[in-house]
Amino acid sequence: MKRIMINELNNYINEKVQIKGWIHRIRKLKAITFIIIRDRTGLVQCVVNNKEINNVDTKLESVVEILGTVLDSKNILNSFEISVEKFSIINSSIEELPIEINKQNLEVNLDTMLNNRMLSLRHEKVNAIFKIQNIIVEGFREFLNNEDFTEISTPKLVEEGAEGGTEVFKVQYFDREAYLAQSPQFYKQMMVGAGFERVFEVGHVYRAEEHNTNRHLNEYISMDLEIGFIEDEKDIMDLEEKLIKFILKKVIAEGKSHLEILKVEVPSIKNKIPRIKFSEAIEILEKEYNKTGLEGDMDPEGEKLICKYAKEKLECEFIFLTHYPRKKRPMYTMPCGSLETHSFDLLLRGIEITTGGQRIHEHNMLIENMRYKGLNPKNYESYTSNFKYGMPPHGGLAIGLERITAKILGFENIREASLLPRDRTRLIP
User: Fold this and answer.
1) What CATH number is attached to the domain comprising 187?
2) Residue 424 assigned to a binding site
3) Which residues of 330-340 are buried (b: 16+ CB within 10 A; e: fewer)?
4) Is 292 domain-assigned?
5) Count of other CB atoms within 10 angstroms of residue 218
6) How far is CA 175 from CA 82, 172, 178, 182, in A?
């Protein structure tokens, strides 16, 4: 027989079906046993005569196959149940479970959850996180495809770091050293210049940062885009605002059941996302919260406070900070005067989720800015040579997938929104 998924069983009332899944919960009575079965689509109550399972090892989380008839029934899960005719173990659970999957909440700490990742992902709340994350990625792709972007896939083994500095992982590449890519930045710009004009990528990036905080990962998923023929960074912010609204609408519409399981409230954007210059934000923090000592960049406390200001005074949980100092932005960032840049960050619920801006498109200016940043242009010739042959004005952004997922769902620790996190101490599973 063809396997029927649990969420389709209401179409098979009084019909014989075959289902497959995991044993989620068992309640044994004198003559019958109630067994809750779980597959990727939900839970169903199955009623089996004890004679059918007296010699069967029915342990929690064992994989089973059930043949039975779908009957009307009032129970806490559905308006139907399965009267079991044949019960078979496909693969039995052979050890005591380190995590109790059938409880409403996983009553374990985060390390235990991550050390037993394949089990913790079976819990409906943990599983729901990554169903929402999948909707976010789908929304990113769908929106950009509708805007005539082309999806690209760029190398993760590179000869030089896109962001400069030392925060790169070295790897042995035959008889020489290479690095794990910090960003697809160079390749995005090259593809704009190659005539695609509008490109995006969803891919892994690597940062050899020593941080071990609840907001950092050393390997994460970056949702990048780059677009040609812009006027300045405002075009990029306008595009991202439409993109974020599209993603949030999609999450609410398609992730309703998952949001209900997680009991979270998705942030909303009533009108426009407020935009404040970085220098103005520094003044606001000092005036409103007596926050001082910020030079060139926001610290975690500053990000939380400016988001608090945005929510309370500007009625939006998102906020764009613009015109970051030139000394703190990468060498490809378009200067704005001598001290600022045509760049921005988008913050949500106390943390930066996006960095973006206009890029330098003139070859000589790019070389000059590299020298200003203390970099040797000769080390970047495979990148800079592309700017000799007609590069249009362009810009782009990068959204951290785990960060935006965590903030939409209201998590403080980014690891909760990472399927298999890699941080300062974790390389397994």
Assistant:
1) 3.30.930.10
2) no
3) bbbbbbbeeeb
4) yes
5) 22
6) 63, 7, 10, 22
The predicted-structure confidence for 105-114, as pLDDT tens digits, reads as follows: 888 999 999 9
Pair 26, 76 in one domain = yes
- Is 322 annotated to bind a ligand? Reply is no
Mean pLDDT of the chain: 95
CATH of the domain at 20: 2.40.50.140
Tokens 């079991």, residue located: 84
Residue 423 belongs to a domain: no
Instruction: Measure the CA–CA gap between 42 and 361, rounded to whole angstroms.
Output: 52
Would the annotation count 403 as a binding residue? yes
Q: Is 265 annotated among the ligand-binding residues?
A: no
d(CA 99, CA 334): 51
Q: Is 340 annotated as a binding residue?
A: no
Q: Both 44 and 143 in a single domain?
A: no
Residue 359 assigned as binding residue:
yes
Annotated ligand binding at 333? The verdict is no
Burial 288-322 (b: 16+ CB within 10 A, else e): eeebeeeeeebeeebbbbbbebbbeeeebbbbbbb
367-425 pLDDT, tens digit per residue, is 999 999 999 999 999 999 999 999 999 999 999 999 999 999 999 999 999 999 999 99
> Does 210 belong to an annotated binding site?
no
Number of domains in the chain: 2
Q: Is residue 398 a known part of a binding site?
A: no
Domain residues for 133?
Answer: 119-417
Percent of the chain with pLDDT over 90: 91
User: Do 43 and 145 belong to one domain?
Assistant: no
Q: State yes or no: 207 annotated in a binding site.
A: yes
Query: In this structure, are 291 and 231 located in the same domain?
Result: yes
- Using a 10 angstrom Cβ sphere, with 0-12 exposed, 13-18 middle and 19 or more buried, the burial of residue 363 is middle
